[in-house]
Amino acid sequence: MAQTIDQAKIGDFERVAVIGFGLIGASFAAALRAANPSAQVMAVDTDLATRVEAVNRGWATATAAPDTAEFRAFIEDGCDLVVLATPVSVVEGYLKDLAEWDYRGIITDTASTKCRIIEMAAHTLPYPQNFVPGHPMAGSEKNGIVGARADLFKGAYWILCPDADTPAEHFTRLHELITGIGARVISLPREQHDAAVAVVSHVPHFTASSLVQLAVRHAKGQDSLMRLAAGGFKDSTRIAAGSPELWCGIAFDNKDALLGGLREMQGIIGQFADALEAGDRATLTSLLAEAADARRALPAAWLPCTERLLEVRIPMEDRPGVVAEVTTITSKVGCNIQSIEIDHVTEDSAVLSLVLTDEGDIGKLSAHLINAGFSVSFSPLAPKEHTHVG
């Protein structure tokens, strides 16, 4: 029976262990259970109240504390995906457990930084190729399961970092799972991840915290100032309400990239201050105009037109790393992959089929793929043609 995009199975994962049932882990489980009610989800968390709430909300079908027989039994009894949604500082212990239990399924994570966790996986796991680093670019000023919700990832970017050793099927299954809960997958090289998120996520958080610090310092005895701050200022500094402990950990995990970004930010603010001090209206106007133009050029909320889907077919040698290479090129030119499939032709050859939404630069995509040695064909695809066979 043919299934539509919305009805299709999401990654074909039926037994999933979510380790860490805070905001991200609980929201992921909620989204997964909403999309696939038959999925068995184990919530692994140190907090008993969180585990009870996970079952009460229907987001987990079973729970366990770490270092328990129940947790190990779930892993050894056909678990096909482990999601590490804990701080990086405690990840290594879980990786050691999975290694000891000879876990051979897919492992991914939700950490905001990648360098340390990738090193841990490489040195700890007997099958490190089964670890596919991930990072959902979503959050809330509320922490823990109380802030979790099933729609947290709707329209959000979710970074995956496959490499040459990542089995192609692992990427395609995770891609289907993540897009199935409403997020959009971006493929990034592992070595570029931490520097990229420092600029678009970590530096903005510390900038927002700095703005709040500035307001607080001037608010003493001036209640009117904080009333004024309840408008646009409050919206622009919302992220500063995040967990201080979590963000301190992120800062030191990504120390070099964050420090470089903050120093660069100091220099940019200094340019504004210098122009103002010198009475240089032309320079100040130019700086403001450059920022305004760049801000207006940012894409609006994701509203892909389902009447303009495009299929890209890429005959390829079935070799390690080819899927990571193609998906990274696709992300680089701003194209969004709606779905991805691999049709194996022979033992050594396959056709990679991408269905793209109406985003990005298709011309650049074609040129980049051809320059990388691929041959490509493009064809419009009606929504009714985009089905999965169930």
From TrEMBL:
Residues 311-384 form the ACT domain. Belongs to the prephenate/arogenate dehydrogenase family. Pathway: Amino-acid biosynthesis; L-tyrosine biosynthesis; (4-hydroxyphenyl)pyruvate from prephenate (NAD(+) route): step 1/1. It catalyses: prephenate + NAD(+) = 3-(4-hydroxyphenyl)pyruvate + CO2 + NADH. It comes from the Bacteria. It is an enzyme of class 1 (oxidoreductase). Pfam families: PDH_C, PDH_N. Residues 14-306 form the Prephenate/arogenate dehydrogenase domain. Its EC number is 1.3.1.12. InterPro entries: 6-PGluconate_DH-like_C_sf, ACT-like_dom_sf, ACT_dom, NAD(P)-bd_dom_sf, PDH_C, PDH_N, Preph/Arog_dehydrog, Prephen_DH. Keywords: Amino-acid biosynthesis, Aromatic amino acid biosynthesis, NAD, Oxidoreductase, Tyrosine biosynthesis. One of its GO terms (biological process) is tyrosine biosynthetic process. This is Prephenate dehydrogenase.
